[in-house]
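Note to self: user wants both folds in one dump. Writing first protein now.
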Amino acid sequence: MLPLFLTSHKAYFGVLAALFAAGFSLCLWFSKQQASLPLLGDYHVYHCDTGGSGKGSFNLLTVSSIFAREIADNLCRAPLMAGHYKSVSISWKPRQQLTAEEVLNEDYDLIWSREHSLRGLVPEYSSYYESLLRYDQYKVFWFSRNDQPQLTREYFRDKKIGLLNDRLSHTFHLLPLASLKQLGVDISLQSLIYFDDASSLYRAFAQGDLDLVSGGLFLEQDLDIPLQRMLIADNVVAATLFVRKARPAEIDCAIATAFDDATAGYFSAHRDFPGAAHCGG
């Protein structure tokens, strides 16, 4: 039975209208609360502050997120960087996403790339950028969680192989595909699974979703699981760092140190840094 004060039609519909208005107002309130939530930043960018008196941001472009944060934090802690820059911003994306306009506009203070890649994009890139540091004589392997990989066509049959969705990546794309081609494997029939970043690739491998991946010796310590390996190539350029010519020359040593400290143990490679003689320590 309805309460006595709702027995009249006028009172009844008045209450319904009040309830509807209250519900509508509540919905508006929730929508405003949701709209005020902070927007998430670009997943492929990490920022840090130097805490110094410098102005502007030092912007880096790398090809992997694996040690991007460590590199940026090392730079932000460097006194020489703090004297010239207020912050450091590091982003990562496949090499083919770098545009000629970004090179010509010098949007990045440092670009992790290879000479042929930059030259193919902007033939006169050397008017804007120069090589600072290179890691070469780097070894790349096939890795398996089960039996040791064999360089035979029969071994790769029905194997699920993880690759990086970066057609310019030697370690995670070009070299493993070249290895398959040399063995006479029909790539069109092979189970190839592509990933947008190395972290996702190796996570899938660690979870058993892939049979094989390629990589450097760092993978053995990163995954901390029993692995078997077979050499693909033993003299690969792991990384070349290109820096803007229009830069404070004194930051070169800070950049080299930041990369060395962040990648220690990752690159079992020869380090070629012509400016090392000018660095203290």
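First done. Writing the second protein, which came from a different request thread.
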Amino acid sequence: QDLAAALAELERMVGLEPVKQQIRALSAQMRMSRLREARGLPAAAPKRHFVFSGPSGTGKTTVARLLGRLFHALGLLESDRLVEAQRPDLVGEYLGQTAVKTGELIDSALGGVLFVDEAYALAGSGYTKGDAYGDEALQVLLKRAEDDRDRLVIVLAGYPEGMDRLLVANPGLTSRFTTRVEFPSYDAGDLARIADHLAAACGDVWDEDSGAELRSITAHVCEEGWIDELGNARFMRTLYEKACAYRDLRLIGLPGEPDREELTTLRLPDLLQAYGETAGGRF
């Protein structure tokens, strides 16, 4: 039941078909592996460590959380807990402290998923021969990925070019993190559907004019190549939330009390003001 619920939530995510296909295949492999074990057949150990590569706002953290639920539902993890971290959570103020700090972070994630966002930041260039602090954290991650492979799932995430740089600089990672999941940017249609879903989840609707303008905006930011910089789904959430704020500001200035329709309808002026504030001067 938990497995079916996690997979159903995956399917409800807008777009991301290549990602969904990989997670479906992974789930099927894990389920068949357990069935083989139950029948006394040899079974390959499930892949437990992943590289998630894609622009900001494309669902990497959400999918990592669902991955934890899948592993937990199949009895491969003690819990579905996700521990999120970035470079400052792993790197100490001096050499030696980093190993301790990284080890303690990993300890806190045992039994669940450790999600390291912007993992490429661990391959900086603070020293002539590289980043000694980041390298120390990576060496601990690599060792614990092997030593605790039955109790831990690790996801290293970041934008594609940064993750390429990280993997090239640290060949040991490719032998431990053998599965790479590529998260594509959202297209204009997906972005509009995300905005529709965000509104519907809160009982709101875009009226005809704002709905048409919304689709014009999503097409424009994609055509101009701005969407990754703006943050994909994160941009749509910010746009929706600001449109709601401008709607409320508009309604408070009207005489009398707004009715239910007015309280839940987002109109063209609300969206245009929100876009003007959110787009950072891009028109």
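Dump finished. Worth passing along: The chain is about 60% helix and 10% strand.
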